[in-house]
Amino acid sequence: MRLDKYLCDMQLGTRSQIREAVKKGLVTVNGGLVKTPDFKLDEKKDTVTYMGEAVAYQTLYYYMLHKPAGYVTATQDSREPTVMELLPHASGKALSPVGRLDKDTEGLLLITNDGELAHNLLSPKKHVAKTYYVECDGRLDQDAVARLERGVDIGDETPTLPAKVHLTAQSKNACRMELTITEGRFHQVKRMVQAVGATVTYLKRLSMGTLTLDESLEKGCYRPLTEKELADLKRLGQT
């Protein structure tokens, strides 16, 4: 790989800026000064520094975002703010969200440019579990919970797959629960709750597969996945 392409891929500047930096002697390869932008290197083995800082070659990036309400899950939108606007300084080209959360839904969102991993996590054949914290208007009796856990008719060709329900609080006219589903149908959680006689008033995704929302991450903030989080997700995607 050419040295200037290597550094451009790492988003250290435009091609012309990188070429100028190389010519000024700001780049080394394996400890030796290199002043030719088209110098060929092995991106898997060679050690590159730029302005004294080591630059490891990386093309795939993975971020956990704590999505707030008010943002649409898209890479761009002409009318609404998108979740990608919350990651203005994130490294990586062609980043995009994995799956969708409604504009008013909060919580865990994975952002990556690893298309293979995204496909595996979203594949209907994988049945990757997603857990949501749900607040509802309306009480869920034992029959309603049983219906959710069997699968309910939400107006699609087939009922939903069985869900897991954990009621955490309930009063005469409201309830709170954690709901785990293994599909990703349009407005699925809201439609499931509506099908058993209640209405979702607040929705937050807590986990997706092995990845759990870091509650120390404030709304609107993001961080790279840890090595363990990424390894666990990749193992899940391969099963």
Structural domains: how many: 3
Query: Low-confidence runs (pLDDT<50, min 5 residues)?
Result: none
Strand share of the residues?
Answer: 25-35%
Number of strands: 13
On the 0-100 scale, what is the average pLDDT?
A: 95
Kindly report how far apart the N and C termini lie.
34 Å
Computed over alpha carbons, the radius of gyration is 23 Å
CATH superfamily of the largest domain: Pseudouridine synthase I, catalytic domain, N-terminal subdomain
- Assembly context of the chains: single chain
Named at the architecture level, the CATH assignment of the largest domain is 2-Layer Sandwich
Which CATH top level class of the largest domain fits? Answer: Alpha Beta
Shape estimate: elongated
Q: Element order, helices and strands?
A: HHEEEEEEEHEHEEHEEEH
Main sheet record: 9 strands, mixed
Helix content: 10-25%
Helix and strand content put the structural class at alpha+beta
Number of helices: 6
CATH topology of the largest domain: Alpha-Beta Plaits
Structure report:
The chain is an alpha+beta fold. The model has no long low-confidence stretch (mean pLDDT 95). It starts with a helix and ends with a helix. It folds into three domains: 3-54, Roll (Structural Genomics Hypothetical 15.5 Kd Protein In mrcA-pckA Intergenic Region, Chain A); 62-124 and 210-238, Alpha-Beta Plaits; 130-208, 2-Layer Sandwich (Alpha-Beta Plaits). It has helices at residues 3-9, 15-23, 115-122, 142-150, 188-195, 227-238, and strands at residues 27-29, 32-33, 48-50, 53-54, 62-67, 96-97, 106-112, 130-137, 164-170, 174-181, 199-208, 211-212, 222-224. Helix 1 (3-9) crosses helix 2 (15-23). It has six helices and 13 strands.
